[in-house]
Amino acid sequence: MTDVRPGQLKVYLGAAPGAGKTCRMLDEGRRRAARGADVVVGLVECHRRPQTEAALAEARAGGLEVVERARCSYRGGEFTELDLDALLARRPQVALVDDLAHTNVPGEGRNPKRWQDVDRLLTAGIDVVTTVSIQHMESLKDVVEKITKVPQAETVPDDVVRRAHQIELVDAAPESLRRRMAHGNIHAPEKVDAALANYFRTGNLTALRQLALLWVADRVDEALQAYRFEHGIGGVWETRERVVVGLTGGPEGDTLVRRAARIADRSVGGELLAVHIARSDGLAAGTSHASLTRQRRLVEDLGGSYHSVVGDDIATALVDFARAENATQLVLGSSRRGRFERFLTGRGTGESVVEASGDIDVHTVTHERAGAGTLLPSRRRTLSGPRRVGGPVAGLLLPIVLTSLLDLDVAREHLNLTSVALLFLLAVVGVACIGGVLSAVVASVTASLLLNYWFMPPVGHFTLGDPNSMLALVVFAIVAATVAAVVDRSLRLSRRSARATAEAETMSSLAGTIVRGGQPIPALLERAREAFGVDAAELVEQPPDTADALVTAVPAGTDAYLVLRGRTLPSADRRVLAAFAAHVGAAVERARLAEAAAEVEPVKAADRMRTALLRAVGHDLRTPLAAALAAIGSLRSRDLDFSEQDREELLATADESMTKLNRLVDNLLDMSRLQAGALKLELRATALEEVLPTALDSLPVACPVDTGSLEEIPAVLADPPLLERVIANLVGNAARHTPYGEKVLVTASALAGRVELRVVDRGPGLPAADRDRVFEPFQRLGDTDNTTGLGLGLALSRGLAEAMDGTLTPEDTPGGGLTMVLSLPFAERVREVSGAPGSGVWHSEPL
């Protein structure tokens, strides 16, 4: 029995539903059938979309066989799924299977996921053409939910799609998808408004489109890398700019990262990669881990990626990394070595990289440390005063004392020249441990002279009779100096490492103090007192008297100083102290800003309420008052003779106007009490179907309104009279801008714990520049003619909506016009029951 060749998978990937993936899949099936392939339609999900249904009907009419769905029952319901057994029995060359991420109805013998059905078909040697949307990729599940606020229950593992023989992107612009949605080509008409206002927002679709493009681009990049590897192509293919910047941990790294980022940004799709080459022994001279950490954050903030590679040959490791990443450009800093150092050490890393780079462009960027010499640690930082003095003294005295002991008869009888030389070498190493390399050189010279005079023939003279003895003495001196230098370097690195570890632990503890929150300034002061072992740490506005050596003060922001009392701090501690002071200064500034914000917030709240009141007085009171005055003035006129019918009409007008005035005054008084914190909002569960008719009846002129079904919409948390007034204002405003013969559409939808009421007009719309201006005071827009202008009365509506913990935002109506979206929370949520919004008085009782 011969092995069956696995089938090949082709995936049409789209950014969102409605992009046209299914139609493209059907077109692919018809093309393959026209070329003679045996193609069947395993399953197509039409979702009641007219264009998809038409494409399926056209495919069927063109001769494509459609496999009947398998019927199954689950929890009393009837469903249809892909008939996998029928497809396997039919064994076509190509099967079209829609919606790869679909979850199958549970049942005996069925796979949980459709992608598992597709895997069975591929194993049986059947080629499969399928579709999937980017939001169903497992790796992007959390990202998509964060963007759209909609959890994705159906996902497909990325590896399933990555294994596809061919992936084709079905791209559609967000505006095109919204037009298709508005025309009813994606969802049913009753779901169009909710979809446009939620999942199908322009920003959501743009983000999903970017995710799809980047995912496919990464897949293409993987295929390119695999091709280059299979064919042994080591050269750089400049398909897109990849800029690698080499970091040493020096202070120039920030400059290099920013320069490399600018180079990468010059081309579309440019990529920034930062790499630090760490030696395998961990002894990288001039490396600051604090600087590397800061530069890593900078790289990530600029959209790049940070990498760390181990290699003893820095130039080779850097070039190898760049070639492995298919980099097109390398950015390095100018050498920090001075002229004398370059003369002694020869060619540096930069020259080696340029020589080995080949077709990779190398940029050498100058910086403030270029040519200034490497920063060697000061001996005063690693050795105490007594050891700096005692080291050279020991280098003179210890060899002399050892010579006196070895000159004894007992020692001369049992020790040969080799043993004596090793004992002198041990003494030199001991001196190096005490006083460093300078003391070791003194000890080496002294030991060499004493060894020559007292123990090497001819004894008692500074001459060497045997050439081998002279060679041994020279080798001894070299070995002694080399070992002393290595020991001294090891000790210095150990001390620096211990110091760095202590500073890192201190800074980590400092960061933990800040992250834990609470009262940051007292906590930081207490941590500073403990870290530096002082008697007291305080924050003052004026610098103290620095004549006292036991007092240390450093600036901590504007008009603030961190003062430590109790002991004199060494210079090494002052660097860490400066970091403490910076954090304390930031905490002080945050405290000042929080205090200022707390003082301003009541003023802002009062100003917002006062503005709403003035707007209401400037518009809502003027119209009924003018009508009432005109009616009463006409009735009082003796020059006019009214009929009984005219008189009744004028009286009705006056009565209606005064009733409106009375209602408006009551509302304004309530808002005044709310501003003063004396009004208790009557927030309760409010059904929109109860408030909407009352709001429409309160309009001064009847207007044609088309209301969708509100029965299934959850109750909102609102004050019914205020909500009634907001809806009346929005509908009245929409009616003024709706062309004659058109209706104002009022619909509602529920999503993520909130209800969104949309009032849609088909008027001229609102330019983007006027989105904020529409809520400004009426006089700013001109109120000489209350039948014109944009958004009259909307300022009061937004103020009332915000008082009920809601929002009011304008959106474009698909096809032209303006949609005002009023968002209010569900009635089941915890509510604020007293005081003004944000007063902090909360009630935890469910409604």
TrEMBL record:
GO terms for cellular component: cytoplasm; plasma membrane. Residues 616-828 form the Histidine kinase domain. It comes from the Bacteria. This is histidine kinase. The keyword Nucleus does not apply. Its EC number is 2.7.13.3. SMART domains: HATPase_c, HisKA. Its main location: membrane. InterPro entries: HATPase_C_sf, HATPase_dom, His_kinase_dom, HisK_dim/P_dom, HisK_dim/P_sf, Histidine_kinase_KdpD, KdpD_sf, KdpD_TM. Keywords: ATP-binding, Kinase, Membrane, Nucleotide-binding, Phosphoprotein, Transferase, Transmembrane, Transmembrane helix, Two-component regulatory system. The chain crosses the membrane at residues 389-408, 420-450, 470-487. It catalyses: ATP + protein L-histidine = ADP + protein N-phospho-L-histidine. It is found in: Cell membrane; Membrane. One of its GO terms (molecular function) is ATP binding. It comes from Streptomyces aurantiacus JA 4570. It is an enzyme of class 2 (transferase). It is a multi-pass membrane protein.
